[in-house]
Design goal:
The structure holds two protein chains of two kinds. By secondary structure, chain A is mainly alpha-helical. Chain A is built from five helices and no strands. Chain A is elongated, with a radius of gyration of 23 Å. By secondary structure, chain B is mostly helical. Chain B is about 65% helix and about 0% strand. Chain B is built from nine helices and no strands. In chain B, helix 1 packs across helix 3, helix 2 crosses helix 3 and helix 6 crosses helix 9. The radius of gyration of chain B is 22 Å and the shape is elongated. The chains are: A mainly alpha, B mainly alpha. Chains A and B meet through helix 2, helix 4 and helix 5 of A and helix 1, helix 2, helix 6, helix 7 and helix 9 of B.
Chain lengths: ~90, ~210
Amino acid sequence: MFIATHTPKCHDITRLISRSMDSPLPLRTRLALRIHYLICVWCERYRDQLILLRRALKAVPEEGAQKTRGAMSPDARTRLKIALQPKS
Amino acid sequence: MNQPEIETSAPPPTRSHADPDRWVDEHGDCLFRFALTRVRKEEVAEDLVQETLLVAVRTHEKFGGRSSERSWLVGILKNKVCDYFRKLGRETNFTDLEFFSDEHSDKFDGENYWIHERGPSDWKPEGEDAMKRAEFWQTIQGCLAKLPDRVATVFTMREIDDVPSREICATLNITEANLWVMLHRARMALRQCLEVNFFDGQGGARL
């Protein structure tokens, strides 16, 4: 297949997708990705899923922390208060 | 009586004396969670909160109520977390061989194309719906906890705190190439973990 042999392989594409999330890619590389998505649903999914992951991670401090683990232990709280007492 | 000079337009500080006990009660959990999300170890998070409040006790006079008490404290904590990462970057060399040796090679064929039945599956429920479920967040936390420490540090700075690549490299003293490899592997591992433990686990159909 012409396209398949003229765009990077999936393994490289996954690396480029990640890279594009941290620094701008050259135009040529961006085009190569576009073309690759036309023939490869897996890489397209991979990209969409990384984007979803990024959105979810931004919400982790609020959503995640509140719904899962929450608070300092009572012991920790006591230790903290003792450590903060003014030394006189 | 000599009043310290404060901008008259700013609202007067509601409380001018240090009150660490109240800070612990009102903001302790929030600060602790903030730290824990980033450093992942309870002991370390606790230490960082303590250091933060000690700084607060020393500097509360300068604070003067310009922002809310909580964002003032979180601001101090951010610096403490950053110092901690900087120290970590000096003390460890930033690789984790075991994590990097497994390049998910079972998912690609000899020519480095996806093996179709092992490639990314079609995630159901879709994004928005998945994010409404508590299990989704639990799974993400669980998956994050499995990342090797140093990879998690880098990944958290980049994805949760949105620190630019260059700044992460400078703080941790690593090269950009090294950073990209770590982020790539972290994303790949996390995507995989979420797929196996949340999406496929729900009986989501594989295509």
